[in-house]
Amino acid sequence: DSGVTQTPKHLITATGQRVTLRCSPRSGDLSVYWYQQSLDQGLQFLIQYYNGEERAKGNILERFSAQQFPDLHSELNLSSLELGDSALYFCASSGSRVGNEQFFGPGTRLTVL
Amino acid sequence: DAKTTQPTSMDCAEGRAANLPCNHSTISGNEYVYWYRQIHSQGPQYIIHGLKNNETNEMASLIITEDRKSSTLILPHATLRDTAVYYCIVRRDQAGTALIFGKGTTLSVSS
Q: Which tens digit of pLDDT belongs to each residue from A68-86?
């Protein structure tokens, strides 16, 4: 158990809909990262937050957004969903110490029908 | 961050050592070598990382060549539960940098 929790585990929705994925980092970790894993693209970094502020952006679509709340949990919002958004979405967290590894949650499997 | 090259797949007999190679010929002096693995759609799991000295922990050993252009992850006594995709990642060791995953090596351990 990495200490990172993600909800829900599975999500099935239709094209055009909007969903919210939730992540609770390990206790004390200030950084939260979101990654997407699809069959054709592999594991891709989407976005990172550090103590409530956006720190870095990767290959995140404009239809996607995220935020980190004062209690450090994070939410990834996916809107106008397309079939190609079906994927595993992982959240990871790390501390602020140089060299801290990232701990990954179990992921949310999103299926867009 | 430097690019890495790994074999697509490898096989290993249970109980034997698994040696997973990684080439990172463009690595810079301030870049570290990290290894993660992913067991069947679970979240990736940190294994080990190093700069230039060999490293060992309870999971594995990391051997980095003197010129730092390649490294080998060693699982000393592979078990069936070590079957996974192993990712070699080179990154600057700064707090808060994202991981850039390649395709990794699929290690299959069989009895």
A: 999 999 999 999 999 999 9
Please tell me the distance from the alpha carbon of residue A96 to that of residue B43, in angstroms, as a whole number.
21
List C-alpha distances in Å: A86 to A36, B7, B40, B71, B110. Answer: 9, 28, 17, 35, 32
Count of CB atoms within 10 A of residue A18's CB? 11
CB contact under 8 A, B43 and A56: no
Nearest to B39 by CA among A92, A61, A38, A106: A106
Please give the distance of CA A95 from its chain centroid, rounded to a whole number: 17
Which residues on chain A place their C-beta less than 8 Å from a C-beta of chain B? 2, 4, 31, 33, 35, 42-45, 48, 50, 55-56, 58, 88, 90, 92, 94-107, 109
Residue type, A47: I
Q: What is the pLDDT of residues B50-96, one digit of tens each?
A: 999 899 999 999 999 999 999 999 999 999 999 999 999 998 866 56
- From the list A56, A96, A103, the residue facing B95 with the nearest CB is A96
